[in-house]
Amino acid sequence: MNPFERIANRYKNLPKIDLTQGHSIAYSRSTTRRNMELIDANSQGNVHGGVIMRMVDEAAAVVAIKHCHRPYVVTARVERFDFLAPAFIGDVVSVNCEMHNVGRTSMEVGVEVTAEDLITREVRKIASSYVIYVALDENRKPTPVPPLVPANDEETAIIERARIRRKHLQHLEEVLKGNL
Ligand SMILES: CC(C)(COP(=O)(O)OP(=O)(O)OC[C@H]1O[C@@H](n2cnc3c(N)ncnc32)[C@H](O)[C@@H]1OP(=O)(O)O)[C@@H](O)C(=O)NCCC(=O)NCCS
Predict the structure, then answer these.
(1) pLDDT tens across 74-115, in order?
(2) Under a CB-based contact definition with an 8 Å cutoff, are residues 135 and 145 in contact?
(3) Is residue 116 within 8 Å of 91, Cβ to Cβ?
(4) What confidence tens digit (pLDDT) does each residue in 17-76 have?
(5) Do 115 and 41 meet the contact criterion of CB atoms below 8 Å apart?
(6) What gap in Å lies between CA 145 and CA 28, rounded to an integer?
(7) Cβ–ligand 1 contact at 134 (below 6 Å)
(8) Residue 47 alpha carbon to ligand 1 centre in Å
(9) Which of 74, 89, 92, 162 could cross-link 100 (Cys pair, CB 3.0–4.6 Å)?
């Protein structure tokens, strides 16, 4: 059996999900770490931005998959991507991701990236992003996801901030389209 057949078989009968059962932010929070190597960097030893972006997409997708219990999620949008400081060969890059907002079929994951110098133990915040995923069903069509239910005041504040940001961005998009 080739790897593609194995993957297809593994998810042939997807478990039914209870869409009334919401999940907290903590439920799907996830961190991915990797040591930066020669192949990740340019000739000056700086890690390529694209390496960080790929790590972010992979790590944030883990959160989306954990939240919606679906093996198929696609990246619909990278809302913004800020590079705040460089990372270097030998740094351990950590991509910390958590669910910030959930629509009917879409999920916005907030991402903070840090780089740690293992010798000095200095940890620098090097990037941040918001990535939106859409859950797909067996026919690769958008499918509903469980709601995001805050577990405490801190989670309520995170979700509220994300909703305000989304509203402002939607307003801006309408203005730029000339609809407002
Ligand atoms: C993302 C995608 C599935 C949306 O399909 P669609 O037919 O436009 O779906 P819909 O109009 O029903 O929208 C579904 C959801 O996606 C959201 N969405 C669609 N495009 C979006 C975008 N560019 N940015 C943010 N959200 C988007 C919609 O707001 C909607 O959210 P909601 O259900 O929470 O309200 C489709 O555009 C696609 O397959 N894009 C390519 C994805 C891809 O290949 N990514 C890279 C590799 S993973």
Answers:
(1) 999 999 999 999 999 999 999 999 999 999 999 999 999 999
(2) yes
(3) yes
(4) 889 999 999 999 999 999 999 999 999 999 999 999 999 999 999 999 999 999 899 999
(5) no
(6) 13
(7) yes
(8) 30
(9) 162
Q: Is the CB of 144 under 6 A from ligand 1?
A: no
Q: Where are the alpha helices (DSSP H) in the chain?
A: 3-10, 25-28, 49-68, 153-177
Task: Give the CB-side neighbour count of residue 109, counting CA atoms within 13 A.
Answer: 37
SS3 33: strand
Answer whether 106 contacts ligand 1 (Cβ < 6 A).
yes
Domains along the chain with CATH numbers: 20-177 (3.10.129.10)
List, as one string, the DSSP characters of 112-152: EEEEE-TTT--EEEEEEEEEEEEEB-TTS-B---PPB--SS
Please provide the size of the chain in residues.
Answer: 180
Is the minimum distance from the CB of 104 to ligand 1 under 6 angstroms? Answer: yes
Please state the atom number of ligand 1 nearest to the C-alpha of residue 77.
Answer: 24
Q: At which residue do the structure tokens 């907030």 appear?
A: 110
DSSP 46: B
